Amino acid sequence: xxxxxxxxxxxLMRDQLRLRLGQAWPELEIIGEAKNGDExxxxxxxxxxxxxxxxxRMPGKTGMEAAQVIGGKTHIVFVxxxxxxxxxAFERGxxxxxxxxxxxxRLLVTVERLKTHLNKPALDVNSSVTAMLSQLAEKITAxxxxxxxxxxSIGQDLRMIPVEExxxxxxxxxxxxxxxxxxxxLIRKPVRDLAExxxxxxxxxxxxxxxxxxxxxxxxxxxxxxxxxVLIKGKSDKLEVSRSFxxxxxxx
Length: 252
Description:
single chain, alpha/beta, five-stranded parallel sheet, five-stranded antiparallel sheet, 7 helices, elongated
């Protein structure tokens, strides 16, 4: 049975990749997970997996730095949020890659490629490949300035939700509800953190516990108590606006 480890500093991304790999390659056994490059090196030394899925950007040793250490001991698969220009560069290198978020159809192609490596010796990540990746890192930001998708739980499933599909976020004491037109999901990240990570031109904070997609706003009304409420297109939800955020609607 082929084996692999996954190294990514985001737990939800590790869970997502594990899930997608299980669907695309049921025989592949994930025998370890790491949060950074140093842990990935230790796992490869201890477990000797056939493959190591390494996020390029991680705290401590990066995926690129870890690959230089373990490249001859296991087949390296870089996990990246880089765009199609980066993919072209990967195609020219002696490495494999998985794009974030991992999509089933694209992962099937990667899996077929990896299967051909099983009976071959692992290749060192040589200086030319490392130089290519370093140049790439300078030109393309690994993580976008603002979040492009949200990793959220729906029951036992993990879903990658593009931020433009989200109507609003609303927090309680433990969770934050992520509401789309079709469903709602839950995350643990509070609104105060989301407000710093989302594009402020797309998401307005209207309450200490609420963020709303400006494109989802149908209008603003008042209730009998004089509170301002945001109406959401296609939904019955009415989101309260705190006094400190009323200035956002002066021109509406």
